[in-house]
Amino acid sequence: MQSLAKQKMMALSGDEAAAYAAKQSDVDVVAAYPITPQTIIVEKFSEYVANGEVETEFVCVESEHSAMAASLSASATGARAFTATASAGLALMSEMLFVTSGCRAPVVMAVANRALSAPINIHGDHSDSMAQRDSGWIQLYAENAQEAYDTIIQAFRIAENTNVLLPVMVGLDGFTLSHTLENVLTLLDADVKDFIGTRQFPKVLTHEGKTVPFRLDPANPMTVGPLALQNYYFEFKRQQEEAMKNALAVIQKVNTEYAKISGRNYGDGLVEAYRLEDAEVAAICLGSTAGTMKTVVDALRQDGVKAGLLRLRTFRPLPVEQILSALANVKAVAVMDRCMSFGGNGGPVFHEVRHLLYDADVRPYIVNYIYGLGGRDTSPTKLRSIYDYLQRVLQNKRVETPIQYLGLRE
Amino acid sequence: MTKQEKTWKEIAPAGVCSKSSTEFLTGDWKTYMPIRDLNKCTRCLLCVLFCPDAAINWYPEKGDIAFDYRFCKGCGICANQCPTNAITMKLAQG
Fold first, then answer.
1. If you average pLDDT over every residue of chain A, what do you get?
2. Label partner for A43 (CA 20 to 30 A): which of A77, A282, A305, A381?
């Protein structure tokens, strides 16, 4: 067995952990605009640049739209690009998110998940990144600052894999993770550099008839992301879908390889099952809520309740097979959405989990819980009430209220 | 769709062009096409200058111009500019 790499314990907030991971990832270009609760990432990275600790070109842009345009452009030349945003900033980037994935530029972005206006709110929920779930970006959600650090490093390997070549956003819950100090084990610079390696490029045939690496290079001119109309646009979109499918295996492989040097893995990289083997009632959630949920599950287990948890670490691509197999023996499931899909009959995670369960051999009862919007506190007591409801569902053999609002004043 | 068009597995990512733009024949969706009356045309070359798609060429050896219908979109700017009304727009075939 390969021995673990030497590590250093640091006290870092989620934002600082993300910035530190980007620093160690040998990033060539950072183009970013500060917005709460992502600000610390940009501040911290500017500090590295000002102190001469990195060779990164830091671009002070005038908006998030420009931040993504600059990141995409840098990435298209073959550079490694990183940026970070949140909430309204991500919404302003929206157009460029689609251009970046369409141009197959492996940009990595930290998203300090925050509510969207109006009313204005700076606190954590998943409305920002969920609204971009069809933008062609891989979406990974961290449970704590440690995972934010580890996932940013992994994200470069995933994005730059030549069978993937898709941008990756790493979600960390606003304030709960972004601003909370934790003990974070960090790898040495050299080990991170070795783990990620240098960017590899697939070969493409250009209009000059040359087969060259896929990157903008004056010596080998090529056109990236031009006009494609009725006769070709569809084919390019199908390629992006294939890249997403390829990402499923790559995310798992990177998770395993990272565990070899760090000793840390997050389920299979796609989903993390917690006490699910014999669970009858289970919840599904993303991000920091899973941490609280695990203590609730432990308490329920002590009381003799067969409770479990499935954390979706990867939301895009949706790990259909992994979710189906993790839930195979569960009788009642609560899907938690920290986001609303107005008029959509439940939240986005609920839509997708319920949709994939259509193919299950035995379909469990399923309930949607909308929770934690605008940073609304989600206490263990509230989370426990979800399992209480699931047990009632099993007793009554029916779901009376399929969509519920946790912690809302009714 | 014509036969030579490739599948999603055969094309480069991100729309990287495998051919020069001159090989993409872009004049296949015109509704009207310009027709020139050789007797009225004075070879002033205004149409050559105004064509937004460089689809009208001047051949000095022939002392004449010719429409390149492979790239002509049928916009009618040439007919509009022609000082002797030598160009008329006719419904394109097929």
1. 97
2. A77
- Let me know: does A123 contact B32? Beta carbons within 8 Å: no
CA distances from A261 to A5, A143, A251 (A): 5, 20, 16
Which ipTM value was assigned to this complex? Answer: 0.87
Taking the C-alpha atoms of residue A78 and residue A375, their distance in angstroms, rounded to an integer, is 38
**Mind giving me the DSSP string for A347-382?**
-HHHHHHHHHHTTSSSPPEEEEEEE-GGG----HHH
Beta bridge mates, A410: none
Q: Pick A271-406's CATH classification: 3.10.450.540, 3.40.50.920, 3.60.15.10, 3.40.190.10.
A: 3.40.50.920
Q: Indicate left, alpha or beta for A209 from its phi (over 0: left) and psi (-120 to 50: alpha).
A: left
Question: Measured between CA atoms, how close is A106 to chain B, in angstroms?
Answer: 12
* Closest CA of chain A from B24, distance in Å: 11
Nearest residue, CB atoms, B7 vs list A222, A225, A235: A235
Q: Return the C-alpha torsion angle A93, A95, A98, A99, nearest 10.
A: -100
Report how far residue B12's alpha carbon sits from residue A203's, in angstroms, rounded to the nearest whole number. Answer: 9
Residue ranges covered by each domain of chain A = 7-201+231-262, 271-406
Contact check, Cβ <8 Å, B14/A238: no
> Which DSSP helix (H) or strand (E) runs through B34?
strand B32-36
Residue B94 in this model has a pLDDT that exceeds 80: no
Which CATH class for the A7-201+231-262 domain? alpha beta
Say yes or no for a CB contact (<8 Å) between B11 and A232.
yes
Give CATH for domain B30-91.
3.30.70.20
Collect all residues of chain B within an 8 Å Cβ-Cβ radius of residue A211: none
Torsion-angle region of A401 (φ positive above 0: left; ψ -120 to 50: alpha; else: beta)? beta
**CB-based contacts of A316: which residues, under 8 Å, 6+ apart?**
A133, A137, A138, A139, A244
Nearest to A281 by CA among A233, A235, A333: A333
Q: What is the DSSP letter of B15?
A: G
Is the pTM here over 0.90, yes or no? yes
CB pairs < 8 Å spanning A and B: 61
DSSP A329-351: T-SEEEEEESS--TTSSS-HHHH
Do A7-201+231-262 and A271-406 come out as alike in CATH topology?
Answer: yes
B19 vs A contacts (CB less than 8 Å): 207
Quick: pLDDT tens for B24-47: 888 988 999 999 999 999 999 999
Contacts of A11 (CB under 8 A, 6+ apart): A181, A182, A183, A184
